[in-house]
User: What shape does this take?
Amino acid sequence: MKLSAYISGIGVLGPGFNHWPQTAAVLSGEQPYVPAPTVLPTPAMLPSAERRRTGRVVKLALAVGWEATSSADADPKQIPSVFCSSGSDGHICHEICLALALPAREVSPTRFSNSVHNVAAGYWSIATGSLAASNVLCAFDASFVAGLLEALTQATVDREAVLLVAYDTEYPPPLHAKRPIPDALGVAMVLTPERTPSSTASIELTLTDEPHDKMTDTQLEALRVAIPAARSLPLLRLLAMGVPGRVILEYLDVSRAAVQIEPCS
Amino acid sequence: MKPLLLAEYTATSCIGRGVAPTLAALVEQRSGLTRCEFETVRIDTHIGEVPGVDAQRLPTALQIFDCRNNRLAELAVQQDGFFDAVQAAAARWGRRRVGVFIGTSTAGIMQTELAYRARDAVTGALPASFEYGTTHNSFSVADYLRQRCRLEGPAVVISSACASSAKVFGSARRMIEAGLIDAALVGGTDSLCLTTLYGFHSLQLTSPAPCRPFDSARDGISIGEAAAFALLERVPESLDGNSVLLYGVGESSDAHHMSAPHPEGLGAKRAMQAALDAASMQPGDIDYINLHGTATPSNDRSESQAVTSIFGPTVACSSTKGATGHTLGAAGALEAVISALAIRNQLMPGGVHTMRVDPTLTAHYIRENRRATVHRVLSNSFGFGGTNCSLILGRAG
Assistant: This one.
């Protein structure tokens, strides 16, 4: 069975990336890449009581998920989702570990609830009212391809549209020294088993031994290496250029993902 | 869905290392819960601690993975000849054709908890010896098992709180069906740590007594630790009728609250129905339900409502968490193995520690073991974030 689907919506937010159309203009070379700290919007889609509790991971994942489903004209209440991240909320983890290192060991109940790896998927379900299945993955630096594999198998085997959301945020010090993710970056895609009016390209994935592609721009290559979700950049560049092609994405030490793209004419 | 074979399975929890001691504890209705004396934790609660985890060693070449969680995974994978069975599968299918799908909620976060205690007094830096990626990071347990078993197929951790290691069966199923792999090492590993003990305590969800699922006086969970694994393969043409198959996986979300279940069990009901649909079964086809049954007042109430709305008030059900504790991200896999043991031994394990079943809960909760026909079992796992997963396992013949 070929692992293939149509890309019918994209969302991006990251350092110097405000949304997919602007990101595409940068990656296709129309605009220069101007690095700037990632600006995360307040998730207006959440009830205010929940909104106050959300950290950067949730804000990031909801923003790109929303952009992708909106541009795909997909109903966020119905579409199953795959969330993948190399870690949960680093700031919450830091606060909990700080509290546990003090004699009183007073862990905030809200922080604990939001410390789970599936915090973004939980808030996505609350925000959209979605009862659909959500799968939440981690494969450390290989998390983007792990999520893409999962989403493509869902679209291929179960013949249903699926929302893929890949996202990573920074850890504060002292954890930052051990896991130096510099800023927040998220990428979302709606993958559909059939072509829709919103489809921009078809995608097919195979595993390979070939070496992975890098970004030619040194700043973008540094970003690709620094943030696990940015391992998607060679794929995003191909999509931005709107041309057929094949890219090799970094995955596990023993294998890479070869992705074939054919734009919808 | 096409059924899959549980070619091998093993479980290690506070009631035993491997399936024989686990079964013996279930037959004797023995609980492994003890008063919490874990590490420096000072909470009035009971826990399900696996003896001997601290003494477990990892192979020298994989020392970078050393932490309680990976020690527990190593301990468990050596039981029941499971490690050798994985090697045989790798030889048979090829190392590239065996995937690794492991559920965990906290992996080796205890290493970070300990590192924060040992921060440099001046700079605040964590100790040089602290390794983040191979201990604390959620993927570390799948990465450890992948390297330990020298498997080269796709590898991933699923971390959706207490539904994690039920959901691994769904991901493995899709990847086998897609033809990307021929076999999958699936399972879950979660180990005791301060984050979950103090965290659940802060939410007032831990019981001072051993947990009493479905009891009128139930007042919270007992946290446990476990590692449980299965080797999933396509169903071969010839098969022993006693073999255990995975017939259905059903998944859903609650869209309700991060740490409280939907009051009527809306998502739970949807997951159970989806599992029945995937298995092409009717509610009457299920002989026994292994409940999520955490023993919090709200979980058991909403789960009971959801179960009764689909299965009515007669199908026998129980929670084995009175015996094992709530093993969080390992619960789905542990209870899948317990379900397999129930099927192989025609045993419905009665729920231990429950003295008086809450009369307001309509599901048919059993406290005593039953020797009865157990051909098909439904097992529930629900988690924070409102994530739900139900599995259906059954006899091949």
The radius of gyration of chain A is 18 Å. Strands of chain A lie at 3-13, 81-84, 134-138, 162-168, 185-192, 201-208, 245-252, 255-263. Chain A touches chain B through 64 residues (CB under 8 Å).
